Amino acid sequence: MKELLLTDLVADLPNAVRLQRAVHTIKEQFRCDAVGLLHLDGDSLRLVAATGLAHEALGRHFTVAHHPRFSTILSRREPTWFEPGSILPDPYDGLLEDQREHSLHVHDCLGASLYVEGRLWGVLTLDAQEIGAFDDNTIQELQHYIQILQASIRVTMLERENRNLRQLSSNAMQTSVNSSENEIIGGSDVLRQLLDELDVIATSDLPILLLGETGVGKELFARRIHKRSNRSHKPMVHVNCAALPESLAESELFGHVKGAFSGATTDRPGRFEAAQGGTLFLDEVGELPLNVQAKLLRALQNGEVQRLGTDHAIKTDVRIIAATNRDLKAYTQAGDFRADLYHRLSVYPVHIPPLRERGHDILMLAGHFLEFTRSRLGLRGIRLSSEAEQALMAYPWPGNVRELEHVISRAALKLLSSGLARDQIMTIHPEPLDLDLEFRQKQPAAQPTTARTMATNPKPGAPLPTLREAVEQTQAGLVRRALAATDGHWANAARLLGLDPSNLHKLAKKLGVKTK
């Protein structure tokens, strides 16, 4: 078995493949049920390769302070053996592939801290359900494999650095083998291709337009671009354009001087000046009013801004990243977004894929949210049943990653409210996920009862509604569907319907959807 690891050291293999082959080889050699390779990232451990563990475990970040076994392993240079009678809770209880449908606990656990060039890198874990699977001889033999594994990690890091044309630096050991910077979690082909593309364009100063459905995490991708750019040492300023009142949008973006308007008691720089030398992230840029769009275009073209209330121009040096869930091209054709600003912002458009196109990333993200929920609620452990995993994979996720987080949190709270104790290992089955309810809320209203179908397919002898009645009933139905799809969030519902939020409120009152 050692020969296989040594052969992989010099083989031309992708990073993830080399490490995955290593943990598989160790599992076969020591005849255990699961092996995990975890990288220390700040105060938490993150699985970068595993075999014998549930797929959702790969998305978990194990906070070291919350897991005494991991703390013990990291505190020692030599391997640590937790015998079956250990009172320390095992972080993998319920996460072994054969355990998800049973209330079994891990019996034997062996762990070792890993060092690369003298620096603590992470942890290797071996787990077995059979009592007596490990002994003193196992520990001695494992030490030889640890040396080879540490060499594999070092080779993997060097190959990654060479591939990115970066020279080795003093902090190279802190570089993750499979980085989850800014919590972008997943290993699907579509996500890896996207991250590779973003890493290339990050080093340019081209304006980038991030396109994608609500909830896909466009801000996280924008932060990754900034962190990988030559401007990473400067600030990244986030502007939520949807939250800017039209009367204050110009002041927020460009600043104002004392006396520019009622309440302007001092000079105040705008977001452009705050982002000087760095990145300005214009989130939900499609929500900007047309008059502000014109001033934004002028600022981008001239590379300067004027504070409200003065003619003095201030030179700016910012990189623009914009994001929207709207079809801006269609909006320009409809006259709701300036075509010249659209072309200025979309020098390099990037489509962020919806969650339903990311395959098993769904389970990795679910694991991440499960571990976060476990820690937040003080639970011993929480896992997914195989049926729940299948339900998550089959669901279309119209709300994407944000919706997945809410579904997991709600299911955990339902289990607690049903009487389960916090010191139990909880298993989430499909029922508390309420995905059928989620799906129904995202679907169009039943067609036979709508005014639209009454008008287009009237029953024989049934009176036709007037055109005005049909239009108003259809509008009311669309408003209710938009509110259901956004959990009652009026601003998000307005974006779905392509309306200004204030106009949506007026329309809803007129249609009787909103009473106050």
Structure notes:
The protein has about 525 residues and is of the alpha/beta class. The strands form 5 sheets. A 6-stranded antiparallel sheet has the order 3-2-1-6-5-4, with helices on both faces. A 5-stranded parallel sheet has the order 8-11-14-7-15. The protein has a two-stranded antiparallel ribbon with strand order 9-10. The chain contains 20 helices and 17 strands. The longest helix has 28 residues, at about 135-165. Mean pLDDT is about 85; it is low at about 165-180 and about 445-455. Strand 5 (about 110-115) and strand 6 form a beta hairpin. The chain starts with a helix and ends in a 5-residue tail after the last helix. The relative contact order is 0.09. It has helices at about 1-10, 15-30, 70-75, 135-165, 190-200, 220-225, 245-255, 270-275, 290-300, 330-335, 340-345, 360-375, 385-395, 400-415, 430-435, 435-440, 450-455, 465-485, 490-495, 500-510, and strands at about 35-40, 45-50, 60-65, 80, 110-115, 120-130, 210, 235-240, 255, 270, 280-285, 305, 315, 320-325, 350, 380-385, 425-430.
Main attributes of the structure:
alpha/beta; 516 residues; 5-stranded parallel sheet; 20 helices; 43% helix
